[in-house]
Design goal:
This protein has about 220 residues and is an alpha/beta fold. Helices cover about 40% and strands about 15% of the residues. Helix 5 crosses helix 9.
């Protein structure tokens, strides 16, 4: 199939969502409900390459604030992988309100193609010291890396909380320094309008779409 035609098919499946600058010229956008509806036939699922991805996170990885479960960033990333021909196996270790230490010694699935760590926001809220945070973050990410030496590891910055920019900067600096993988900035999304849910903190559907686009812009597909 010619390249333009193939691109048109992908864009049609994703219901014409806009392309985030981070994805321009590289990936198809991650849209909302339309991406949920993209499903492969049973035969296509069997032929598709298996892709195992694990998420470690807090309420943002749960999808708090989204209008429905499938509009959180974890579901959007999984849907994006399916549109790119993957038979996706997703493990989501997510719990609202938890700091990074909560998942520090949790079981690590293997083998993984990718792991996404979205933690630190509650460490800002709880006032975790930079030393404590770095120790816990290093323990978790080192265990993920040891169990999956070839997996791609993405470390997301914190989801911005109003009035805590200085603490966010400290935690984000630790994440960037400790992460044995790729740092993904989502804190910068705080400057985008209309990205928060009615609680004033968690992302809404638009915010989760932007987080998903930041994640998929870094994923390498084999």
């Amino acid at each position: 199939m010619p390249l333009c035609a193939a691109l048109a098919v992908v864009l049609a499946c994703l219901a014409g969502g806009s392309v985030h600058p981070a994805n321009a010229g590289r990936t198809a956008p991650v849209s909302g409900a339309a991406s949920e509806q993209v499903r492969q036939s049973p035969a296509a699922e069997r032929r598709a390459a298996a892709y195992s991805i694990a998420f470690f996170g807090d309420s943002v990885s749960v999808g708090a604030g989204a209008s429905r479960r499938g509009h959180g960033y974890v579901s959007r990333v999984s849907s994006w992988l399916r549109t790119h021909g993957k038979r996706v196996v997703t493990t989501n270790n997510a719990k609202g309100g938890v700091p990074v230490a909560y998942w520090m010694y949790s079981p690590v699935p293997k083998p993984l193609d990718a792991a996404v760590v979205e933690l630190g926001t509650n460490d800002v809220r709880l006032g975790t010291t930079s030393t404590q945070f770095a120790r816990s973050y290093r323990t978790l990410t080192s265990r993920i890396r040891a169990a999956n030496p070839k997996a791609q590891l993405l470390c997301l910055s914190v989801w911005s909380r109003r009035g805590s920019a200085s603490l966010e900067g400290v935690i984000n600096t630790s994440i960037r320094a400790v992460c044995p993988g790729t740092y993904v900035d989502i804190t910068g999304l705080r400057n985008r309008p209309y990205i928060r849910s009615s609680d004033g903190f968690h992302p809404n559907d638009a915010g989760y779409r932007l987080i998903a686009e930041a994640v998929v812009s870094k994923l390498r597909l084999r």
